[in-house]
Amino acid sequence: MKPSDTRALVLNSGSSSLKYQLIDMAGHDRLASGIVERIGEGPVADHGEALRIVSGELAAAGSGLDDERLAVIGHRVVHGGTRFTEPTLIDDEVVAELEKLVPLAPLHNPANIAGIQVARTLRPGLPQVAVFDTAFHATIPEAAARYAVDAATADRFGIRRYGFHGTSHAYVSRATAALLGKAPDEVNVIVLHLGNGASASAVERGRCVETSMGLTPLEGLVMGTRSGDIDPAVVFHLARTGGMSTDEIDTLLNKRSGLVGLCGDNDMREIARRIGEGDESARLAFDVYCHRIRKYVGAYTAVLGEVDAIAFTAGVGENSAAVREASTQNLRALGVELDPVLNAVRARSPRIVSAAGSRVAVAVVPTDEELEIATQAYSLAAQNRPK
Ligand code: AMP
């Protein structure tokens, strides 16, 4: 890697899609981005074919995979287990370790590994870095990370809170500190990442101390299609009384629950439209969704003791004034007071939407997971540059 090599390619490889973004790290310019979908169905047979399509699109944008200025490829990897808590340069041994983590994330990690392997084949010798969705949560204390289940069983099967969306929580908590004119280690922030997946985190002076997702991304907030928190006995009840198989219950809770389960829609825009027409199931879905967020804000306020800011991010958090309002209503006792006029303003930049007298700042902070992955990958590649 030469000082002139300033480009980072970020790959986010899912089971049926491959998202990419090429960023010039000198000025954080997005040079190209896109998504190849329906991998495994029809013309795009596998991740190898998908990456060749990406390579073609990059070449058309003037900077193909063979571009000498490309310094690093950063891969989003969902689950790092307890083994990976930092961005990691990928070699054969790392890939073997990632394979061992597949049982913890059977829906996600195999696709991540497939993306890594084809990228290594197409650009051998180029530094490739895995950036883990779990990594930012590695600082969560044991009291918050351990589930109160039989310790030997938990240890044997790796059962604990890992947390996800870590790249976003890291980026947004830092950006929120910057918005307040403070260093990350000077503030306590509750981050609410409300996208199609949704999670909350409590970040104490730059270190994550609690998060809502757990062993898998199913726990915590109500999401587009995931239930979030439920009594675990629901699973036994559905198995014993409903005669459902493990896979059926898995699909029910991950794909047919949350907003879509409650009202048939998982897009908050559509839910808002239906509420406007007086639709009761849409109203209930919205209320359940916001109630859960409020509950977590209260809990995380207690975890942190003192809160400087609550930051809303991702598709719903950045765009839905109604969700921000409903989920921070009646929190004056916690020092949280929204300014309805500021909250209603639509903008793309980080901004404060709380009232002047609010002890806790409420902020809208757009997330940028790709930039965070690129930054972490690029910095690791630069540190490992041959002298
Ligand atoms: P993400 O996973 O961060 O891309 O967020 C996707 C979700 O954001 C969608 O499913 C929508 O529910 C939500 N969303 C996007 N735009 C808006 C908007 N203008 N108002 C409300 N929700 C939105």
TrEMBL record:
Per its UniProt record, what Pfam families does this chain match? Acetate_kinase (PF00871)
Please name the InterPro entries in this protein's record: Ac/propionate_kinase (IPR004372), Aliphatic_acid_kin_short-chain (IPR000890), Aliphatic_acid_kinase_CS (IPR023865), ATPase_NBD (IPR043129)
According to UniProt, residues marked as the site described as Transition state stabilizer are 165, 226
Instruction: Please provide, alphabetically and separated by semicolons, the GO molecular function terms listed in this UniProt record.
Output: acetate kinase activity; ATP binding; magnesium ion binding
User: Where do the catalytic residues lie?
Assistant: 133 (proton donor/acceptor)
Keywords assigned by UniProt, alphabetized = ATP-binding, Cytoplasm, Kinase, Magnesium, Metal-binding, Nucleotide-binding, Transferase
Location of the protein in the cell: Cytoplasm
Quote the cellular component terms of the Gene Ontology held in the record. cytoplasm
Report whether Nucleotide-binding shows up as a keyword of the record. Answer: yes
**Which cofactor does this sequence's record say it needs?**
Mg(2+); Mn(2+)
Superkingdom of the organism of origin: Bacteria
Tell me the enzyme class: transferase
Q: Give EC number(s), comma-separated.
A: 2.7.2.1
Provide the catalytic activity annotation. acetate + ATP = acetyl phosphate + ADP
Indicate yes or no for the key word Kinase: yes
**How does the cofactor bind to this protein, according to its record?**
Mg(2+). Can also accept Mn(2+).
Oligomeric state and interaction partners are given as: Homodimer.
Query: What does the protein in this record do?
Result: Catalyzes the formation of acetyl phosphate from acetate and ATP. Can also catalyze the reverse reaction.
Q: Family, per the entry?
A: Belongs to the acetokinase family.
Question: What is the protein named?
Answer: Acetate kinase
Record organism: Streptomyces smaragdinus
User: Gene behind this chain?
Assistant: ackA
